[in-house]
Amino acid sequence: MALSGLDIFKKLPKTNCGECKFPTCLAFAMQLAAGKAELEACPYVSDEVKEELAEAAAPPIRTVEVGVGDRSLTVGGETVLFRHEKTFVNPTGIGVLVTDTMSNDEVSQKVKQANELMFPRVGIELRPNLVCVRSDSGDTQKFESLVKKVVSESEVGLVLMAKSVDTLKAGLTAAKEKKPLLYAATKDNYEELSQLSKEYDCPLAVYGKGLDELSAVAEKLVEAGHKNLVLDPGSRTLQPALADQTFIRRAALKGSYRPFGFPTIAFASEMADDSMKEALSAGALIAKYAGIVILSDLDPARLLPLLVLRLNIFTDPQRPMTMEEGIYEINGPGKDSPVLITTNFALTYFIVSGEIEASKKPTWLLIKDTDGLSTLTAWSAGKFSGDLIAPFVKKCGIEDKIGHRKIVIPGYVAQIKGEVEEELAGWQVEVGPREASDIPVYLQRYSTG
């Protein structure tokens, strides 16, 4: 049973230091009990107390890791029903299905896509995460051979699916180093798969024909000490799937129902015969509230919108996306190249840098930390002004890279030209275009001489 805020408070150091960002240890304990704070935020809790409070500190939906290494996938860890309440934490894993009835070429193509497809967006690499390997033939040797092939070719995490425990065990033996997700424990085999999951230290999917059956199986596995579970309520059409996903999320967050306090898996690959309808189903499931979504293929034209949707949903709505403060080289600038400056709001950076790239003009772009605010907002908040820009320009190292002393500020903050010149002695300040789309023409006409 989860501890109350007072129970947690009794075990804290009671320093009231404020380093956890809460005014008192009691306030921190109350937030910890509510799942709105993390125990790691307190720097003075002993390892013994951390272990003791692990259950209380765990989020309502536990985190589960599938795979190993740089391409492993972490799902779950959610604490809110709606992202605007706080934020969603771990983005939905997107996987592709391969079966032991497919040709070797088709399998290799899908695995290669899972490995290599990558779309850069606002400084983030958007990628699929998993290969789901399913036994359709019922032949243990064929499944084992397929798993060996995928393991040898794949860089991402794996989901192993088979109805037979023996078949699943054969596949797991071939993929044990990858720590795959085992699919799935049912009312008929959960004891065998429970032992298999513990023996190989792998996460375990739980399947039930409906929420009641899923709940019963998950409850028995929780009682057996399993903490790395992934839930599948068995719905294979969109409307029931959304209803089940929502019920599971609400039961975990609002009802504190432990058997449903785990991420879920959904099979968009089985929800539509039409590829576009499958993509629409996947999009709905990413929004509400699947931890893993399996697709029948990774066609880039359908995958990219899903990855962008996932990025938008799992971006913290209370924290703007930012770029690191510093100097960015675009088109191979040299000593005579112009120097532009703007804020570190990610969208501002990518729009401005994109226009500079399109101009083909070698350019230095300085990014000033403004807490992720756009140009006008940062200026009005006092975060993009002469007295802040000047020290940054002097310390960032741009003076050692250029043979002139001219800098271009955004046209929307032309009013700070005088104060920048006053603070930045020896520099000439130019006012650039108001709109980023005018940057290419401006740069072609611009001279540092």
Using brief descriptors, characterize the structure shown.
TIM Barrel, 17 helices, 3-methyladenine DNA Glycosylase II, Chain A, domain 3, 16% strand, 8-stranded parallel beta sheet, Rossmann fold, 3 domains, 449 residues, alpha/beta
Summarize the structure.
The chain has 449 residues and is an alpha/beta fold.
Description:
With 449 residues, this protein is of the alpha/beta class. The chain has three domains: 5-57, 3-methyladenine DNA Glycosylase II, Chain A, domain 3, CATH 1.10.15.40; 64-313, TIM Barrel (Alpha-Beta Barrel), CATH 3.20.20.20; 326-445, Rossmann fold (3-Layer(aba) Sandwich), CATH 3.40.50. Helix content is 39%, strand content 16%. The chain contains 17 helices and 17 strands. The protein has helices at residues 5-11, 25-33, 47-52, 54-57, 104-116, 140-153, 165-175, 190-200, 211-223, 238-253, 275-287, 300-313, 346-359, 375-380, 386-396, 417-423, 439-445, and strands at residues 64-66, 73-75, 93-99, 119-121, 124-126, 130-134, 157-161, 181-185, 204-207, 229-232, 265-267, 292-295, 326-330, 339-343, 363-368, 406-409, 428-431. The strands form five sheets. Strands 10-9-8-7-6-3-12-11 form an eight-stranded parallel beta sheet. A three-stranded mixed beta sheet has the order 13-15-14, with helices on both faces. The chain has a two-stranded antiparallel sheet with strand order 1-2. Helix 6 (140-153) runs parallel beside helix 7 (165-175). The longest helix is centred in the middle third of the chain and has 16 residues, at 238-253. The termini are far apart.
